[in-house]
């Protein structure tokens, strides 16, 4: 059974497309999250100021990460945290500190691979650069170019065996072309100029590539959706949409709703803005203390709490069904996934599975289970990292997608809205 693309799901997917377009880098994603939260009445928390636990929504931004939380009227030291985790980053090319290089008259961009990308998917696409520029005095400016560069593939006439297997050396074969015949050209000067800065004003930068092709629905009945950075902006968008939805309803619960959108998941999460860093713990501890809980009281709050780690999961690939477990073959538009792995690459256990079943039942959406083929080890998520760091019950879920870690990924048009509904039901106390 698959979900039909009902009007609410189509409205959600259209807004998701706008969200993806507005978020070509984690820093842009954080800015767009902040904008949406501000419109919904959330108040920004300055980490250098005293902690605000006033009733209503709050959020903080740390680099490319955002944590938002909503304090209910009946909050107290007996409350629990209901946490949804996701991540803002996706595989891309990151520009090196000395970005300019030349070869045979062409001006190339000196890049390195960020995350476990499908390298071939980035060939023959018009790419932009997006991220932040930081001046000597510490001011940050976001910048995003239009079509700027391209990695042209070698013609088949010059590589007759290419269809027997394409091998791309990340140092030799993946330099984007951005100009020709201009040895004096400066990539940083060009990008800085778009932000109204001179190159010599920029002391540091974090710039990554993105595919400039806009998101699009397709299929015989418009049942599919394609976009870049779907892993994991799909969960980020579903999470913030569900959190904002929750501000319109009195759930009658004293639990504190938390949305943690981390950066750097694709490279291990071990940063100040990543899931292995302190950002979520900082929010939970400071909130607990501001409510009057001592250290032991905060740990008691943890013991009552839970985390739903939401990240993209693999739908069964119709051309490679042997790569999937024969008894667990989730499909697009079949509903959100419960992700299970015996080696705890996903953090789900029986208690977490029951928690997710309650949320999906309350939301009236179907749920699918994904378990890897024993001979094909799975990746991991922020789930095990968060569970290990905080000791809070954690379950791994997500929406099914195809072409994961491609420059352009694919999902069903109904699943993102179903995920939003299930996350909302979880926050409502299901």
TrEMBL record:
GO (cellular component) term, any one: cytoplasm
Record CDD domains: M18_DAP
EC assignment: 3.4.11.-
InterPro entries documented for this protein: Peptidase_M18, Peptidase_M18_dom2
Pfam families: Peptidase_M18
Domain of life: Bacteria
Molecular-function GO terms, alphabetical: aminopeptidase activity; metallopeptidase activity; zinc ion binding
Cofactors required: Zn(2+)
Any Gene Ontology biological process: proteolysis
Keywords: Aminopeptidase, Hydrolase, Metal-binding, Metalloprotease, Protease, Zinc
First-tier enzyme category under EC: hydrolase
Family the UniProt entry places it in: Belongs to the peptidase M18 family.
Protein name: M18 family aminopeptidase
Organism field: Raineyella fluvialis
């Amino acid at each position: 059974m698959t979900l039909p693309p009902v009007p609410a799901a189509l409205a959600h997917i259209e807004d998701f497309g706008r969200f993806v377009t507005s978020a070509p880098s984690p820093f842009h994603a954080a800015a767009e999250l902040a904008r949406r939260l501000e419109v919904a009445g959330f108040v920004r928390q300055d980490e250098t100021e005293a902690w605000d636990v006033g009733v209503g929504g709050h959020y903080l931004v740390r680099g490319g990460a955002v944590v938002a939380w909503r304090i209910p009227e009946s909050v107290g030291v007996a409350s629990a945290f209901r946490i949804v985790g996701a991540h803002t980053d996706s595989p891309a090319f990151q520009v090196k500190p000395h970005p300019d290089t030349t070869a045979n008259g062409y001006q190339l961009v000196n890049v390195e691979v960020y995350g476990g990308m499908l390298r071939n998917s980035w060939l023959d696409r018009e790419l932009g650069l997006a991220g932040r520029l930081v001046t000597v005095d510490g001011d940050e400016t976001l910048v995003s170019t239009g079509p700027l560069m391209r990695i042209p593939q070698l013609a088949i006439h010059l590589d007759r065996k290419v269809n027997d297997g394409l091998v791309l050396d990340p140092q030799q074969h993946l330099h984007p072309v951005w100009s020709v015949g201009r040895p004096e050209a400066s990539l940083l000067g060009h990008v800085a100029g778009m932000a109204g800065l001179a190159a010599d004003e920029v002391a540091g930068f974090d710039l990554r590539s993105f595919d400039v092709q806009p998101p699009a629905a397709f299929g015989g009945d418009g049942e599919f959706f394609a976009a870049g950075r779907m892993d994991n902006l799909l969960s980020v968008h579903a999470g913030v949409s569900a959190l904002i939805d929750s501000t319109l309803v009195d759930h009658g619960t004293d639990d504190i709703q938390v949305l943690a959108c981390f950066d750097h998941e694709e490279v291990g999460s071990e940063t100040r803005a990543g899931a292995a860093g302190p950002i979520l713990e900082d929010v939970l501890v400071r909130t607990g203390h501001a409510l009057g809980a001592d250290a032991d009281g905060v740990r008691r709050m943890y013991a009552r709490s839970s985390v739903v780690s939401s990240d993209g999961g693999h739908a069964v690939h119709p051309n490679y069904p042997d790569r999937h477990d024969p008894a667990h073959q989730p499909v697009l538009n079949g509903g959100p996934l419960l992700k299970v792995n015996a080696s705890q690459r996903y953090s789900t256990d029986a208690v977490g599975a029951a928690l997710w079943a309650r949320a999906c039942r309350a939301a009236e959406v179907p749920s699918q289970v994904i378990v890897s083929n024993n001979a094909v080890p799975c990746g991991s998520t922020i789930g095990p990292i968060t569970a290990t760091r905080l000791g809070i019950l954690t379950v791994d879920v997500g929406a099914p997608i195809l072409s994961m870690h491609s420059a352009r990924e694919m999902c069903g048009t109904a699943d993102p809205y179903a995920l939003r509904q299930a996350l909302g039901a979880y926050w409502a106390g299901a």
